[in-house]
Amino acid sequence: MTDFGGMHVATVTPFDAAGRPDLSLLRDHVKFLADGGVAGICPCGTTGEFLYLTLGEKVRVIEASCEAARDRLRVIAGVWALTARETAVLIRAAESAGAAAVFLQPPIYYPASDATILRHYAAARESASVPVLAYNIPAYAANEISLDCAERLVEEGTVAGIKDSAGDADRIAALVERIGERAAVLAASDSFATRGRQLGAHGFISALANVWPRAFARLWAGDESLQPAVDAVRQAVKQAGGIPALRRLCELRGFPVGASRLPGGPLSHDQLARLDAAFQKAQESGLD
Questions:
Q1: Euclidean distance between CA atoms 129 and 124, whole angstroms
Q2: Which of 226, 248, 257, 261 is the residue whose CA sits 20 to 30 A from 174?
Q3: 135 is catalytic
Q4: Class level of CATH domain 6-223
Q5: Domain range list for the chain
């Protein structure tokens, strides 16, 4: 089984004042994460706002991420696209750039049966020479990778593991039981960092680790005392709109990454005040 252990960061995509991906700032951010002791990064995922990036921008973000991470971090690149042909382009770009693996969500918007999801991942596998990870995030994708489907994907050799963002402890436990000896299970909800490790997940993927990589590396290593602080700031981010709020925390940490692209909008004064207070409390609680 391929090693996907440790704490990984679902990286934000920095934008410049004109709204273009800021690759220089991205490289600096990746180096900051590497210095923080995490095991890897996952560019062009949900936190990276992949839906708002063009195909060419995704390629450049993946390439810059791999360049900055070289010899220091494992890169698991997001390669979801609207068509199988575009996904294949992203897979080839990720491989050429040096990514260790790729991941992608199931089909979105239209309802997808298990058979459709199996075909979707089989097409990606045919295009790839590096391991492919499935990414279960039903709240956003509208289609869930069932436990039976996940097991079949592993049995058929289509995927080397699954990133699961369903936020369901029972599901993580079931995945570990059903596929954990043959494929990697990566928990991917910040509230599950401690619980995921306890349940036997092989690794973890965090959005908040963009802000506090050292703390999250310690959390995954077993410092469970940090989980309450993580839960509190995660709730503040959720209440303030998710990714735009995470971008504000990055700015407060000293890494301004620009505003979200439309339709993401600016935060209100009240949201900013709440986030600033949550950031200060998190710092005082030991997140660094």
A1: 10
A2: 226
A3: yes
A4: alpha beta
A5: 6-223
Catalytic residue (choose from 47, 87, 135, 194)? 135
The residue type of 78 is: G
Report the alpha-carbon distance of residue 147 to residue 72 in Å, rounded: 33
User: Active site includes 281?
Assistant: no
Q: How far apart are CA 140 and CA 41, in angstroms?
A: 21
Q: Which amino acid is at 38?
A: V
Distance of alpha carbon 132 from its chain centroid, rounded? 14
Q: How many angstroms separate the Cα of 256 from the Cα of each of 22, 46, 88, 248, 253?
A: 11, 19, 32, 8, 8
Tell me which residues of the chain have a pLDDT lower than 50: none
Going 24 to 27 to 31 to 32, the CA torsion angle's sign is positive
What is the chain's mean pLDDT, rounded? Answer: 96
Here the tokens at position 155 are: 């049995």
The DSSP letter of residue 88 is H
11 catalytic? Reply is no
Catalytic-role residue among 47, 58, 158, 163: 163
Residue 99 vs residues 56, 74, 184: alpha-carbon distances, Å: 17, 7, 17
Percent of the chain scoring above 90 in pLDDT: 94
- Write the DSSP symbol of residue 76: E
Report pLDDT digits (tens) over 141-152.
999 999 999 999
What is the number of residues in the chain? Answer: 288
